Amino acid sequence: MDIFIKKAKIFFSVAVFSAVLIGVLLGSIIKNTPQWSFDYAAHKLSTIRYKVDYAGGLNAFLANVPEAFSKQIQYEKNITASIPVLVYHGIPNESDNSLINITSENFKQHMFALKRAGYTTITTPELYSYLQGKIKLPEKSIMITFDDGRIDSYKIADPILDALNFKAVMFTIGRYPLLDERNKYYLSINELKDMNNSGRWDVEAHSYDGHNTYYTSALEQNGHFFSHKIWLFDKNRLETDQEFDDRIQSDLRKVQSDLGKALNKTINSFAFPYGDFGQNSTNFAGARTITLKDTSSKYNLSFYQIAPEIHFTSNYFIPEDKSSPFFNVRRMNINPQWSGQDLVDAIAKGAAKTLPFSDDFTKDNGWIRVWGKLNINPHSLTLSTEPNETGGSIILDGSRMWNNYSLKASITDRNSNSGVYVWTRFQDDSNNLSCNFGKNYIHIEQTLNGIQKVIQGTDYTKDVLPAKDFTVTASVNGRNITCNLNNTLTVSSQFADEKLGTGGIGFKTWQPVIGASSFNIKDINVTPL
Description:
CATH topology of the largest domain: TIM Barrel
Shape: globular
Helix content: 25-40%
CATH architecture of the largest domain: Alpha-Beta Barrel
Strand content: 25-35%
Distance between the termini: 107 Å
CATH superfamily of the largest domain: Glycoside hydrolase/deacetylase
Largest sheet: 8 strands, antiparallel
């Protein structure tokens, strides 16, 4: 009996030891094999759940499992003429009423709506090659980006992207994942490695330590890292230009080097914190030039949201820029309250438009208010001033790459003091052509690199611009531009600058002094020449 008990104890000890050894070995394997981890299993279950949700239910999902798991649904596509880039930040489960964070449910609906509308996602290398004219991309190509490197955005977005076979870019702040202590708000370097190795995510730079505000005066006023000189309290002065330059270069270099080394990849893209590189707010005139110079020396692409003079929301291949090694890319700010359809509609308004084009203003086709007031009424558009302003202006989104065309607009209800300004070949505020219809003159004006001049004009001894029901025509063909009022008064020039070979359309109302300035546009027609 004693021998039996002794053998049983030995057998039990061996069994326990073996179980512990097997457990340790399995734990080690699981720890070093992400595909066997609990997080990986949870991710795959969430991915399947989103696939079922997108399909419209389990029965619909099971009816077409191969398509649900395919790498990419194939659509009949044309070649795209513009690329929208979306920017997101955090994805909390519940709304925090911020202007940048979107709830998990709304984000899901955004992605589902994009997929159903036929959009496919692109990567930063693809965008760079597209802007250089080295590749063509299918219609409805889009880039999805996130800023900051937040845990909530990754954990919520990743299974949704996986379910839809979408890709995204994460612009991460460099210092937080590289700290020794674990941060509950930002992704760790191991999580960033998993992201980058998944094939769904491209991890890029969002500064090393420049995502804060900094004192810009002795009064402790705040400014952004890449657009403001910082106040040096120990020296009781602002940075010099050289000190600003050195600080910008140091941050750009450090995040590119340290993040790239940790992820074992080359960091080629950079998103400016707050989208600010000196174009929106600054305390010295050289900020924009220095920041872009430093960024372009280290990166292929940089990303921002708003620049005062840039009004088109998508990005275009511009032949004149194809040899450039660097591109500053615009992104669309996303309203967290938008529905999925709202997002699709907003993207469609900014997409490249084709000629011929007509608008009777039964809906908004993508008119961008530059300044003043814009009201789209049933079958008319009203352009007017804000209080204490002298005018207002609008640009048609998606018209950036138009070249040879004739625009004809029916105008009515012009305020007696208002001129009618028609933009053609509009590239940005500093580069465009225009027909300026004043009360007693018609001028052809050219703005090149911010310098505006009249290149041809005719003055009259009486008022020729009616208050009611008249037409204006602006035609551009090669270097020729013609302005026409009511098919009778014409001014032409053959000397438009060759650099203004493409550009969109727009309108401006103005008067020399502050006061009411307005007119209505009943319809417009643009035909190719």
